[in-house]
Amino acid sequence: MDNSREPVSDARKLQLLLRFNQLISRRIELKPMIAEAMAQARELVNADRTTLWLMDDEAGQLYTFVGEGLEEEVRIRVGEGVAGTAAREHRVVVVNDAYNSPLFNPEIDRRSGYRTQSLLAVPMESTDGKLIGVFQAINRLDGSDNDADSGFTDEDTELFSSMAAIAAVFLENAVLYDEQQRQFRSFIVTLAQSVDTKDQTTSNHTKLVTGISVAIAQELGLSRRTVERIRIAAVLHDYGKIGIPDNVLQKPGSLNEEERDLMRSHVLKTILLLRRINFSRELRDIPRIAGMHHEKLDGSGYPFGLRGDEIPLEGRILAVADIFQALTQTRPYKQGMAVPEALAELRIMTQDHTDRYDKVSGMHVDPLVVDALARILQREHDDLRVFEEASKWEPMLQGRII
Q1: What confidence tens digit (pLDDT) does each residue in 51-100 have?
Q2: Residue 70: CB partners within 8 Å, gap ≥ 6?
Q3: What pLDDT, on a 0 to 100 scale, did the predictor assign at position 401?
Q4: Within a domain: residue 396?
Q5: Is 264 found in the same domain as 116?
């Protein structure tokens, strides 16, 4: 351990506090932001390492969300060790001679090969006094070249407690947001399941279209927010089928012209039904995106006959995912294609072509999107189970944080 770091000046302390407050208020991905904020906290109190423990209420444990020097998550019981004591007693705990303190648990040192000398643990509480987690600093550096640990001071405790209070407010808001998101996700999934239950001939279609869409979006390097928007649009893309008669949805053979028109109307029904949902500003385009999975680049698709750049990338991704899943899925009236055959069919659709009914058509799907799908399948050796994994919602707060 290098204990030669220079003491932090008062001006630098103020700068770090301001920077910490600004950083933790930014709306960016939570874990990288918290990790950077913890680095600011470490410098402020001249510590060697910091750890953010979060409370898992169901398990009655604390787990490391950000743990500098830890390669994997560590869990401890509330009341165990210095952080566990701070959590159980809702008080700041300072230990400046770890191996001579009855509160210290050396198990983490044994696992990591680290040598703890001093600890400062501050409980983080919500506005109603509920424990959120513990903010912890480890091994205060004394600014000299020797291995001595000067121990955490009263000033360190005050500064670190201020930062813990700021972090607690932010994390409490994140928990509330998480609960809202969980409710929203549950609502969305319930809507989608109602369609899959109604249309047994295409059961599991929604889940797989979602997985394919998400995997393609990630392969194309789209932002996390865009991927989430695509995920929700994919989950809901066929919701309008709830308004299609069962005898049409579940017909085992070919549809006649009137039935095809009825089936095609599900897209407009999807858009109109989804417009009734009060989506947040970031998700306001969901109805429009969900309604684009049957549009084609040459303008021959439906419901609006959009062409070229009129179809955003999200819609192009959904279109490829929907076609590929339909081609590979075995249904009562057809055998699903093998992956290479389905990809070949999609490749044909990326250019002017003659379809299987000898009808001359223009470009239907985006070749860049098809290429992304092909790369995924090549990596996975045509194993479609990768899309089942991609369809899963990412974990959130309440015991786990994204």
Answers
A1: 999 999 989 999 998 888 888 899 999 999 999 999 999 999 999 999 99
A2: 51, 64, 108, 112
A3: 35
A4: no
A5: no
Burial profile 257-270: b = 16 or more Cβ within 10 angstroms, e = fewer: eebeebbebbbebb
Q: Cβ of 284: how many Cβ atoms within 10 Å?
A: 12
* CA 199 from centroid of its chain's CA atoms: 29
Segment 160-210, tens digit of pLDDT: 998 888 888 888 877 777 777 777 888 888 888 888 777 766 668 888 999
Token pair of 259, please?
């039935």
Closest to 323 (Cα-Cα) out of 302, 349, 357: 349
Distance CA 68, CA 208 (A): 38
Q: From CA 213, how far away is CA 234, in angstroms rounded?
A: 7
Q: What is the DSSP letter of 299?
A: S
Task: Kindly state whether residues 37 and 134 are assigned to the same domain.
Answer: yes
Segment 94-119 shows an average pLDDT of: 93
Q: Count the alpha carbons within 13 Å of 159 in the hemisphere toward its beta carbon.
A: 24
35, 99: one domain = yes
| Omega prior to 287 cis, within 30 of 0 | no
Show the domain range for 363: 199-390
Q: Is residue 7 classed as helix, strand or coil in its secondary structure?
A: coil
End-to-end CA, the chain: 31
Q: Are 124 and 171 in contact (CB under 8 A)?
A: yes
Provide φ and ψ at 325, rounded to 5°: -65, -40
- pLDDT on residue 357: 56
Q: Of 193, 200, 189, 202, whose CA–CA distance to 328 is shortest?
A: 202
Average pLDDT estimate for 108-134: 92
Q: Which helix (H) or strand (E) holds 160?
A: helix 154-198
Looking at residue 34, what DSSP letter applies?
Answer: H
Instruction: Report the candidate in 81, 194, 72, 83 with the shortest Cα–Cα distance to residue 132.
Output: 83
pLDDT at 22: 56
Q: Please answer whether residues 396 and 175 qualify as being in contact, where contact means their C-beta atoms are separated by less than 8 angstroms.
A: no
Residue from 330, 318, 346 nearest 235 by CA: 318
Q: Is residue 253 part of a domain?
A: yes
